[in-house]
Write a structure and sequence with these properties.
Layout (H helix, E strand, L loop, with lengths): L2 H10 L4 E5 L6 H8 L6 E9 L2 E8 L6 H8 L4 E3 L2 H4 L21 E5 L7 E5 L5 E6 H8 L2 E3 L11
Parallel strand pairs: 2-6, 3-5, 5-8
Antiparallel strand pairs: 1-7, 2-3, 2-4, 6-7
Length: 160
């Protein structure tokens, strides 16, 4: 079961969380509609390659990642969307494209849009296309240790 690694981690850290089961959905906006969660309140994990290494960019489901802004902020040579081939094997316990935003469980950095911190809770894919986890944002921040920066796109150019 894909949720087991995440669940063990949350339980070991004594985190209160809610698992939300839903019909199969493959897009963040589709999941938001099925679960009646506003797109800005559902976090999506976008895999990026930064100078040849994988990282997670986490933004509200209703927006896109501004790759140019991320590159500029981090001072790296290149930032681009990772291909499925580049990241699929890094998440053996997850269905492709449904990884939770806990890069620390998979040996990678997490960059999260600062707007996610405006809500007391965060909801995100839990390793499958059928389950979400909802938990306190403070707990997520403490455990995942994301770098909170402005990476949500404000325009259509250079986005993912």
């Amino acid at each position: 079961m894909p949720l087991s690694k995440l669940r063990e981690f949350l339980d070991r850290n004594q985190i209160q969380y809610l698992v939300i089961s839903h019909s199969v959905a493959y897009t963040a906006q589709g999941i938001a509609a099925l679960t009646h969660i506003k797109g800005k309140e559902l976090a999506k994990t976008v895999m990026v390659m930064m100078d040849g290494r994988l990282a997670m960019a986490v933004v509200p489901a209703s927006v896109r990642v501004d790759l140019h802004r991320l590159k500029k902020y981090l001072g790296v040579e290149s930032v681009e969307l990772a291909t499925e081939q580049e990241f699929r094997d890094r998440f053996p316990d997850c269905e492709t494209g449904s990884m939770p935003p806990f890069g620390n469980l998979y040996g990678m950095d997490v960059f999260a849009d600062e707007s996610l911190a405006e809500d007391k809770e965060i909801s995100f894919n839990a390793g499958s296309h059928r389950e979400l986890v909802r938990m306190r944002f403070d707990d997520f921040e403490r455990l995942a240790k994301p770098m909170l920066i402005q990476i949500a796109a404000r325009q259509a150019a250079h986005v993912a």
